[in-house]
Amino acid sequence: MELDLDESSLAIGRIERALSRIEKALADRANRPESAAQAPAADQSALKAEVAAVIGELDRLIAEADRG
Amino acid sequence: MADVKLTIAGRPYDLHCEDGQESQLLQLAAVVDEKAREMPGGTEVRQLLFAALMLADDAQDAKGKIEKSEPQSDSLRAAVALAESREATARDELRAAVTREQAALKELEAVLQAGPAAAPPTKPAHDRALLQIADRIEALAAKVEQLP
Questions:
Q1: How close, in Å, is residue B77 to chain A by CA atoms?
Q2: A5 vs B112: CB contact, 8 Å cut-off?
């Protein structure tokens, strides 16, 4: 499947909306009074690993795009 | 001051107490009277001695229970504080990661908008990667929203 620039922009829009959802969820969580409830450590590690992997993938894309 | 009439071990007593404390005094007298009556047949002094010893024993038991429960309360408080601190750290790390991700995305947008010279459009591999990233970040958002 090939995407033109507009479709790339759509993908970026999806990413931006997803990031906003994450920010909102984190803010809600911080404001909750029973914030002592904690996600299992394994879940947190998996989440962190996935975030790091996605950032790495974005960095790789940027580097490739810079190189043209 | 209020006047209160008490009966302990069969003997009436007239006492004074501060206004409003009458019912509390009557309640305490009832406790002493109950203890005194647990040793019927003795002299009044022996009944009162017995009541005093029983109440001292109750007080010592209660004090022992409080002392035993204090270390447990301390451990629980420490565990809660530790959990709160870890949760706050994890949240901060995740938030920092989201910020880095947004910065990276902006950079990517800038590269894409810079035009064909900087980033030739329609590179299928890049576009596919971008789509996959969108899928993964949406999945991440769903996971974060479902955190307890």
A1: 12
A2: yes
Interface contact B94-A26, CB threshold 8 A: yes
Q: Tokens representing B132?
A: 């996959």
Structure confidence by residue, pLDDT tens digits, A5-35 = 566 777 888 888 988 898 888 888 888 776 5
pTM equals 0.45
**Which residue reads 């991700």 in tokens?**
B101
Using CB atoms within 10 Å of the CB of residue B143, give its burial: 0 to 12 exposed, 13 to 18 middle, 19+ buried: middle
Q: What is the ipTM of this complex?
A: 0.77
Contact across the interface for B108 and A58, Cβ inside 8 Å: yes
- CA–CA separation, A24 vs A30, rounded Å? 10
- Residues of chain B in contact with residue A6, where contact means CB-CB under 8 angstroms, are none
How many angstroms from the chain centroid is the CA of residue A64? 20
